[in-house]
Specification:
This protein has 341 residues and is mostly helical. The chain contains 14 helices and 2 strands, in the order αααααααββααααααα.
Length: 341
């Protein structure tokens, strides 16, 4: 009888775990990414080559880094449309600072400081003044990109002074990972930064008071306020975190490209929001993970790369990404409806 009872408990726990896993949007997005990877490896002789995978991982890292910050914002029920403009402003600050002959050790903190200042402005206007996030961040999108134009006089910057090799190594370098019975695998520098940020953000979202406050605010802001959650300071910190992620991506992208123009990051906010939503973040707030944002960004980049390799016009990319957003939202609605029934 005891053995039978233990078996029943084990079966019930296993069933609950499996049911929870299958109900997670991140799980299905991960499955879709794996299926797409396998299908493209079979359909194209180029996709699974080390050089192409190097390019895919490097390209998706920029979107994924910002998507982690965007996920934190959306969890609280907000939105940040200014991330692409913050990216170019950060890139232009580090570019112009180093172009003037100053050290990268001064230029990087300055660029990140400007990014944090933009995020603080967004957060203060939203949390303390009460302006809707859409309005504030849409306005800051225009302001930040305009400041980047003023700073550079709307010209391309490609000379970064004596520390230029360090900047190029920061965004365009790689680390060799040696594996038994295989050639060394090149891991792009932006991917290293992404992995570090992913670990930090995952721990912060899951195991810190700050992370619990994010979900509380997104779930029910009024209830969070009544239970003593410092809603306004947390909101400011969230927008600062998102802008910091955009600033980091801006520095890395300039280092990869070896140049910076005012068109950098244009329209990037759509890809970033799409990565977060596709990865399981609920636009209504209260739900989302850093890992889901990374998986969503990876799926988008695999789609973009596959269009190129299969000879399909990249103009179709927006159609695929938009369709995935709609499907992701529908999946969440159906899941919520099923839970309420």
């Amino acid at each position: 009888m005891a053995a039978t009872l233990e078996e029943q408990i084990d079966r019930r726990a296993h069933g609950n775990w499996l049911g929870w896993l299958v109900s997670q949007q991140t799980f299905w997005v991960s499955v879709a990414a794996v299926v797409a990877f396998v299908a493209l490896s079979l359909a194209s002789d180029v996709f699974a080559t080390q050089q192409n995978l190097f390019n895919v991982t490097r390209n998706f890292a920029f979107v994924a880094i910002i998507a982690i910050g965007m996920t934190a914002v959306i969890i609280t029920g907000g939105i940040d449309l200014s991330v692409g403009a913050v990216l170019v402003l950060s890139g232009m600050v580090i570019g112009m600072t180093m172009h003037a002959g100053l050290s990268i050790w001064l230029a990087v903190p300055l660029a990140l400081g400007v990014s944090l200042a933009v995020g603080a402005f967004n957060g203060l206007m939203i949390a303390y003044v009460g302006v809707p996030p859409f309005v504030v961040t849409l306005g800051v999108l225009s302001i930040a990109r305009s400041l980047a134009m003023v700073l550079s006089n709307n010209r391309m910057v490609y000379e970064f002074g004596p520390d230029q090799p360090r900047l190029l190594a920061l965004g365009g370098g790689f680390v060799n990972l040696s594996l038994p019975l295989m050639d060394p695998i090149r891991i792009p520098s932006p991917v290293i930064f992404l992995l570090v940020l992913l670990v930090i953000a995952s721990i912060a979202f899951r195991w810190t008071r700050w992370g619990r406050h994010l979900y509380a605010i997104g779930g029910n802001e009024r209830a969070a306020t009544m239970t003593g959650v410092p809603v306004k300071p947390v909101k400011v910190s969230v927008y600062m975190f998102c802008s910091l992620c955009a600033g980091i991506a801006g520095i890395l992208e300039v280092g990869w490209l070896g140049t910076v123009t005012t068109s950098l990051g244009q329209g990037m906010e759509l890809s970033v929001i799409a990565a977060s939503v596709i990865g399981g973040t609920n636009l209504a707030g209260g739900i989302g993970t850093a890992f889901g944002a990374v998986v969503g960004a990876a799926l988008i980049e695999v789609i973009r790369n596959s269009l190129i390799l299969l000879g399909i016009s990249t103009f179709w990319q927006g159609t695929f990404v938009g369709s995935f957003i709609i499907v992701a939202v529908l999946f969440d609605r159906l899941r919520a409806r099923g839970a309420n029934d």
